[in-house]
Amino acid sequence: MANEQSYSPPAPTTTTSHTAANNNSTNINNLNNNHGNASDLRRRVTDDEIRLLALLADGLPVEAIARRLALSDRTVRRRSRALCDRLGARAPIQVVAWAARNGLI
User: Fold this and answer.
1) Separation of alpha carbons 62 and 31, rounded Å
2) Which run of H or E residues covers position 80?
3) Are 56 and 92 in contact (CB under 8 A)?
4) Is 86 left (phi over 0), alpha (psi -120 to 50) or beta?
5) By Cβ atoms counted within 10 A, which residue in 43, 46, 48, 104 is the most buried?
6) Considering the entire predicted model, what is its pTM?
């Protein structure tokens, strides 16, 4: 067993870089600072997304939103996440706040 080598696990690394954190902050700042005209803002979200945001703003749970929109819970979560991703937000509440500030809901 002269050729046997001992195993050392790799040192732990962090997965979040400062660059990634800065990019995320930039996206959120862009979302928060986007006060374009109403038609430009309106083109960024569909009528269905406006209805979803309005129900989220009312504080309804996902299950109730799904029932009102005749969708599955999973579809409501997926659409909410897709909207966040498209607009550069980390959470649906950020998109709801953006929509409210800009008069969309």
Assistant:
1) 23
2) helix 73-87
3) yes
4) alpha
5) 104
6) 0.64
Tens place of pLDDT per residue across the chain (105 aa): 555 555 555 555 544 444 444 444 445 455 655 545 555 666 778 999 999 999 999 999 999 999 999 999 999 999 999 999 999 999 999 999 999 999 999
The distance in angstroms from the start CA to the end CA of the chain is 72
Q: Cα 79 vs. chain centroid, distance in angstroms? A: 10
Q: Position 99: which residue type?
A: A
Cα dihedral 55/104/94/66 (nearest 10): 20
Nearest alpha-carbon partner for 102 in 92, 94, 19:
94
